[in-house]
Write a structure and sequence with these properties.
Layout (H helix, E strand, L loop, with lengths): L2 H27 L4 H82 L1
Helix pairs in contact: 1-2
Organism: Chryseobacterium edaphi
Protein name: YtxH domain-containing protein
Keywords: Membrane, Transmembrane, Transmembrane helix
């Protein structure tokens, strides 16, 4: 995950924690019956839990997308490098075979001249 995504996740977690703390403190100091306050806290906690799940899902999807993009780019680059290396190998192999053939012909010609 990139630094920007780490910072975003950290900020998001801080905001959610701050919101939860604010809600809980507000409810605890509200002039209501304890049972009602506990019910509100439980409901708000469930809401925050759902919100956190949704945000986690969004961040998770972004990470998966980035991984897919990076993976595709890496595969494409690796294929390009492999083709470039193969093309270079084929080019130089053909040149070496051609030069070797020329040398063999020259040696054969030299040997034939010596035999005469």
């Amino acid at each position: 995950m990139s630094r920007k995504e780490n910072n975003t996740a950290g900020i998001l977690a801080g905001l959610l924690a701050g919101a939860a703390a604010g809600v809980i403190l507000g409810m605890l100091y509200a002039p209501e019956e304890g049972k009602e306050t506990r019910k509100k806290i439980k409901n708000k906690a469930n809401d925050l839990k759902e919100e956190a799940k949704n945000k986690y899902g969004e961040v998770s999807e972004k990470v998966k997308d980035q991984y897919g993009n990076i993976s595709s780019t890496f595969k494409e680059t690796a294929n390009n490098v492999a083709h470039t290396v193969k093309d270079g190998y084929d080019k130089y192999k053909d040149q070496i075979v051609s030069k070797t053939t020329d040398i063999v012909k020259d040696v054969e010609t030299g040997l034939n001249d010596l035999k005469r």
